[in-house]
């Protein structure tokens, strides 16, 4: 994750230097969800081109870390792939922080396996049993006689909590699971391991992994918007109170028609069906 953040920051710095812009104001700081990271990166680059006097610092770390930073007043925007928790709101209030949610996109949580895996569809119950360690071989769900390697996001991730909401329902993930810190790390791990299974935000699914249908429904922009796909969710940017100034302008840009085209280009699900016709990358 450090390398990803470093590249984003260096890339934005280079863009600013090439533009010949000198900044006087403090940068807008954005931290949090690695799921929301591609949306933030794509939209802030476009926003900065339109507003060359604005500087933005972006990093990942997970939804929990982003919300923690908002509560500690070390970020202007907290990216999150889950709703803020009641206990986080209570803690924020003790520090004079009022978290306000801004839905910036939709997402579908997609189980993925190695491209050579013959399994194409799993039920919610089968996914839960795999992640609990009760189903341990692919032959038990129609695949080959191969041991299942369970890969999961770490517990600070909003994607982990979404998986718990949709699949685990408070059941414990097997202690044998590999816990990784980002969507990108999960993609790499599954692409290299014929035995593996993981889950990703839809924008991270690429040809190096095979997406599975869930309950016979394939995850897509259309099925996520219609809620036909059983694991659809909203993606958020949180601010301390109603945003003002450049922070408000940036969030408005992300939610605008132009910003939503970038959401779709990054492979995620827009806020409205009419915004889903933008060309995906």
Question: What can you tell me about this protein's structure?
Answer:
The radius of gyration is 19 Å and the shape is globular. It has 2 domains: 147 residues, Periplasmic binding protein-like II (D-Maltodextrin-Binding Protein, domain 2); 119 residues, Periplasmic binding protein-like II (D-Maltodextrin-Binding Protein, domain 2), CATH 3.40.190. It contains 10 helices and 11 strands. It is of the alpha/beta class and 281 residues long. The longest helix is centred in the first third of the chain and has 17 residues. 37% of the residues lie in helices and 21% in strands. The strands form 2 sheets. Strands 1, 2, 3, 4, 6, 7, 8, 9 and 11 form a 9-stranded mixed sheet that branches. Strands 5-10 form a two-stranded parallel ribbon. The N terminus is likely disordered.
Draw up the topology in text.
Blueprint: H1 2-18, E1 28-32, H2 37-50, E2 56-61, H3 63-71, E3 77-80, H4 86-94, E4 99-113, E5 121-122, H5 124-132, E6 149-153, H6 158-168, E7 178-180, H7 183-191, E8 196-201, E9 210-211, E10 213-214, H8 221-225, E11 232-240, H9 245-255, H10 257-265
Parallel strand pairs: 1-2, 1-3, 5-10, 6-7, 6-8
Antiparallel strand pairs: 3-11, 4-8, 4-9, 4-11
């Amino acid at each position: 994750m450090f390398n990803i953040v470093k590249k984003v920051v260096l890339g934005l710095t280079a863009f600013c230097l090439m533009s010949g812009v000198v900044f006087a104001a403090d940068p807008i700081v954005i931290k949090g969800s690695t799921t929301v990271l591609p949306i933030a990166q794509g939209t802030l680059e476009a926003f900065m081109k339109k507003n060359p006097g604005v500087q933005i610092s972006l990093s990942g770390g997970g939804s929990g870390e982003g919300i923690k930073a908002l509560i500690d007043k070390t970020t202007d925007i907290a990216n999150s792939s889950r709703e803020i928790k009641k206990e986080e709101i209570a803690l924020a209030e003790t520090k004079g922080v009022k978290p306000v949610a801004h839905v910036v996109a939709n997402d579908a949580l997609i189980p993925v396996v190695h491209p050579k895996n013959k399994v194409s569809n799993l039920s919610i119950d089968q996914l839960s049993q795999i992640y609990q360690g009760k189903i341990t071989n692919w032959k038990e769900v129609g695949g080959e006689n191969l041991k299942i390697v369970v890969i999961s996001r770490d517990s600070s991730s909003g994607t982990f909590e979404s998986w718990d909401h949709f699949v685990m329902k408070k059941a414990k993930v097997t202690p044998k699971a590999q816990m990784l810190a980002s969507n990108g790390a999960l993609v790499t791990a599954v692409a290299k391991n014929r035995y593996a299974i993981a889950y990703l935000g839809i924008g991270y699914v690429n040809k190096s992994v095979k997406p599975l249908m869930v309950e016979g429904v394939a995850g897509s922009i259309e099925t996520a918007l219609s809620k036909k796909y059983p694991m659809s969710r909203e993606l958020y940017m949180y601010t301390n109170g109603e945003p003002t100034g450049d922070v408000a302008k940036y969030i408005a840009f992300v939610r605008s028609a132009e910003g939503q085209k970038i959401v779709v280009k990054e492979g995620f699900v827009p806020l409205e069906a009419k915004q889903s016709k933008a060309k995906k990358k």
